[in-house]
Amino acid sequence: MHADAETIGQAYEDMQTQNQHLLKQVTDRNDYNIKLVSESVKVKQVQNVLMSEKQAIAKQLQQVKESQESLQLKIAHSEDQIKSLLTETAKASQENRHLSLNIDNAKWELTDAEKELKWLKSAIASSEKELEQNQRKISELQQDLEIERRIWEWSTLSDQ
After folding, report:
1. Residue 83 exposure: Cα atoms within 13 Å on the Cβ side
2. What contacts 102, CB < 8 A, 6 or more positions away?
3. Domain span at residue 96?
4. In sequence order, which residues have a C-beta less than 8 Å from that of residue 134 and are 6 or more positions away?
5. Which residues cross the membrane (predicted)?
6. What is the chain's alpha carbon radius of gyration, rounded to the nearest angstrom?
């Protein structure tokens, strides 16, 4: 009888030890799951920030494109004005001395138009440079987003 009691006591102690070990495993697993959820939330937040930045850059890019189109229209209009002024200048040179004031005025307008054309070309060059920079930023953000997506997928697969 005494041997049975010792056997039962030993079995009880073994079960207590096993229960403590299992409780530790459950606690560790729970801590790990909490960590994974936390990391998943952080990844999602980063992904959302990157998406917002991507959208903002895309909007800026669209604005630059629209600005570029507007500047190109202005250049075309200025070029048309220059052509028109050159035609007027040629006609004016054929007229008599009485029209010389009109010729001088046309030359001043031509100079102003050429300055404006030069400025517009410079503005387009600047816009194109900014467009290229924005495209590089978008490319970098897309790469970063892809890396984050792969990390998230990897962590999701690891959880399974």
Report:
1. 6
2. 92
3. 2-159
4. 57, 60, 61, 64
5. none
6. 38
Two tokens at 142?
């897309």
Number of domains in the chain: 1
Give Cα separations from 66 to 27, 113, 121, 122 (angstroms).
Answer: 58, 22, 15, 16
Q: Which of 157, 151, 158, 135 is CA-nearest to residue 54?
A: 135
Measured CA to CA, the distance from residue 6 to residue 8 in angstroms comes to: 5
Say which CATH number the domain at 26 has: 1.10.287.1490
Low-confidence residues in the chain, pLDDT < 70: 92-99, 102, 159-160
CA–CA gap between residue 156 and residue 44 (Å, rounded): 12
Query: If we measure between CA atoms, which residue out of 124, 113, 71 comes closest to residue 88?
Result: 113
Distance CA 25, CA 11 (A): 21
Q: Tens of pLDDT along 73-109? A: 998 999 999 899 888 877 766 665 566 776 788 899 9
SS3 95: coil
